[in-house]
């Protein structure tokens, strides 16, 4: 205020002197003839040597606003922000301790904030009000939050889910969405503050990630959990479980749905085990527990009365699901370990294994030739072979067996199945296994060199030896394979 008063007084005195000179007819056409001009020459006008700038700074940074002036004389230099005076001469007028004058009249602002953005004027306090203006823009890294703030969105199966997040920053951040728990990484889903999923299913449940990025520092993100309320769905690892008296057996059911512990209260999921139609409860031999979405029924010291049909039942407020599992003492289905291609023209070594806690009492092997020509494929009649049970086991309950099928036709395709019996009965028929005999015009020595031999207990010995075969042998084998496949699909 005092500065303004001084300026007004100076202006008034200057006006009075001008009027006085005019009233007395003093001529100013020749300044050198005026004795006052010689004693008091006119002052040289102040001049800014700094230039106006546009300054961009990230929040928290320190910025400097230069203001250098030549020929300031007795004039006062002011820093203004809008109408507010920040400094006057060497004095800091504002109470904000972040502002400081460096050498000369350069203004420094520490730890800049978003509200520091705007125009700053360095002004010479004379009647001409000459200004040097700097424009300050404060860049703010992105921030993001979920809507709702809990980050949980719940929707019924078949409905529409809307996920939303809000971002702020300067410049305005761009927003993108991805699926955090995707099996194929984190694919890009959409752009914009909302992600809409229509006709949602159980598979849509999971964590979705909202990214905000404006190029200032690193992108930020927030996770939203989508919960799809649906009737339970059950899958089982095995529909048939082999068990032995005195051993331990375990049945497993996987319940798909909202079985995550923190969300089960939303629909009151219940899991029950039945044997036949009787609800089971834990006892000294039977336990029931769960880990994640897997539910286990464990039976220790199995008895014959434990064999039978079991079911796992899952129920919530939206529906009910059931899956069946059979637990039996009968042998498990046969698993084949032989290579697909025989080493011989007229015979084939078949190797398989069967799981059975009791001893195997009888083996039944059936095989037949597939009749093929250019127009059709027709199976021949089954050859039925009854085999003696094996005398040794590879493990306590795993039996490995081998049998050489003879009198086969060269260059032919055969298929075989195997059944096994113990004191509880016959097992289920195995899956059909196909094998091929060699062409009759292929030299025996090339066959043995190329295909090698299948060691008992190592069904992959053929492949291991084939890797070390010569180039010529490989070409022979590839020719056989190509011919066999052509004949198979004609």
From TrEMBL:
Pfam families: Ig_3. It comes from the Eukaryota. InterPro entries: Cell_Adh-Cytoskel_Orgn (IPR050958), FN3_dom (IPR003961), FN3_sf (IPR036116), Ig-like_dom (IPR007110), Ig-like_dom_sf (IPR036179), Ig-like_fold (IPR013783), Ig_sub (IPR003599), Ig_sub2 (IPR003598). This is Ig-like domain-containing protein. PANTHER family: CONTACTIN 5 (PTHR45080), FI23916P1-RELATED (PTHR45080:SF38). Residues 1-21 form the signal peptide. Keywords: Immunoglobulin domain, Signal. SUPFAM superfamilies: Fibronectin type III, Immunoglobulin. SMART domains: IG, IGc2, IGv. Residues 46-133, 142-223, 232-328 form the Ig-like domain.
